[in-house]
Amino acid sequence: MDPTPERTLRAAIHRGDGPAIVSVLTGDGRDLLQSMPQLAGDGVLCALAHQLPAAQELAAELAAILRYRDWDGDAELADQLNPASSDPDQVPLRPLPVDLEQLAAVLEGDPRDGGGRIDLTTGEVWPQAAFDDEDEDEDEDEDPRWLWVDGDGSRASYHDMAEFITTIPDPDLADRLERAIHGNGAFGRFKDRLAHHPHAFDRWFRFSAERQRGRARQWLASNGCRTNPRHRGAD
Questions:
Q1: Computed over its alpha carbons, how large is the radius of gyration of the chain?
Q2: What is the spatial distance between Cα 87 and Cα 184, in angstroms, rounded to a whole number?
Q3: Which of 85, 101, 136 is a domain's end point?
Q4: Do residue 51 and residue 101 come from a single domain?
Q5: Do residue 80 and residue 98 come from a single domain?
Q6: Quick one: residue 115, left, alpha or beta (phi over 0 = left, psi -120 to 50 = alpha)?
Q7: What is the mean pLDDT of the chain?
């Protein structure tokens, strides 16, 4: 089975393959500019690092899409894609190769898990569980190597589900999903009912992934940092 354009794009971003990213976004995956501009934007940032001519056009187009949509994190990504249209008085953000999906998992994880931290020397995201068995120094909280991340739980995901329901054209499905998101186990019930509607489930996955990536990007910017995607051939 051939991979979807989204999977091809994700793989190209992971490899830091700028030419492959441009190929996807100007070919079969062009719809990702509209449906997943946060993901596409991380790909274009990589392509820009390769100084590919087509990347400049994609960056300008994506910046306009993001500013129009205006979800959490969209303005921050638009500024990075098209600095000429950003606020000239904005304080520069520290570039850091942070995996936004990993950061989102910590940010929206169970607060009882203790959150996590970002290594400011490498950009790696670590859940707190990775350090629970270690003897911590008393002054570790002040260690400049780490940027601490608190887990806020599933509140944002609940709001995502409620907002997504408003986009469903089938009133019967929308009603069943609305009833599913109340009470304990809401997220599991929501996904179980969506699983019988593959098209809607795919749309939910994209919607949720975009929301989480954008919130992680916005959180990172609020802490003085921005993503700096690696590109093939870079150290």
A1: 19
A2: 44
A3: 85
A4: no
A5: no
A6: left
A7: 90
In this structure, the number of other CB atoms found within 10 A of the CB of residue 189 comes to: 17
Exposed e or buried b per residue across 172-181, where buried means at least 16 C-beta atoms within 10 angstroms of its C-beta: ebbebbeebb
Which amino acid belongs to residue 65? Answer: I
Please give the pLDDT value at position 90: 79
pLDDT of residue 70: 97
**Banded model confidence at residue 89, pLDDT cuts 50, 70, 90:** confident
DSSP label at residue 85: G
What is the Cα–Cα distance from 32 to 26, expressed in whole angstroms? Answer: 10
Q: Per-residue pLDDT tens for 26-74?
A: 999 999 999 999 999 999 999 999 999 999 999 999 999 999 999 999 9
Q: Determine how β-strand 125-127 pairs with β-strand 116-119.
A: antiparallel
Type of residue numbered 188: G
Residues 101 and 74 in one domain: no
110 and 224 share a domain?
yes
Could you report the per-residue pLDDT of 135-146, keeping only the tens digit for each?
A: 555 456 678 899
DSSP string, 137-183: PTTGGG-TTEEEE---TTHHHHHHHHHHHTT-S-HHHHHHHHHHTSS
CA distance 173 to 197: 9
Number of domains the chain is built from = 2
Percent of the chain at pLDDT > 90 equals 74
Tokens in use for 211?
């929301």
